[in-house]
Amino acid sequence: MKKLVSILLLMLYLVSTTELYQLLKIPQLVEHYIEHKGLNAEMSLTTFLKIHYDNPVKDGDFGKDQKLPFIIHAKPLNLIFTLDKGFELELQNNSFKNIVSHRMPSKDEGHCFKGFVDVVWEPPRFSFS
User: Fold this and answer.
1) How confident is the model over 81-99, as pLDDT tens digits?
2) What is residue 53's DSSP assignment?
C-alpha cells in the first residue's frame, strides 16, 4: 500500500511540476488524427505530425490544433515557502567552541611554489619560427 501511495504522489508531483502532463493529451492527438484520416484517407501519421508540429498553419481547426500535446507549453507549478514574521533564530554563543589549530609545515614549504606563481601568466620567452 505504501508503494502505491508513493507512486501516486510522485506521479502527481511530476504531472504538476514538469511537462509530463502533456502526455495526458495523447487521446486528443489520436482523436484529431482520426478526424483528419476521415477527411483524407491517404494521410499517414508522419504527414499528420508534420502538418501540426513542423509547419503549423492557422486553418479551420486551429482551436483543436492548440489542444494537442506539446503545442502550448504552460509554466510549471512553483512552490514558494515563506517564514512567518514571528520566526526567530537564536544562536547561543556558549554552544560554539574555539578550535585551536596548530599548523604543521611541510618538508619544503618555502620552496614549493617559489618562482612558479609569478611566471605562470607571462608569455613565452622564445618563439617557434
Assistant:
1) 777 777 777 776 665 567 7
2) I
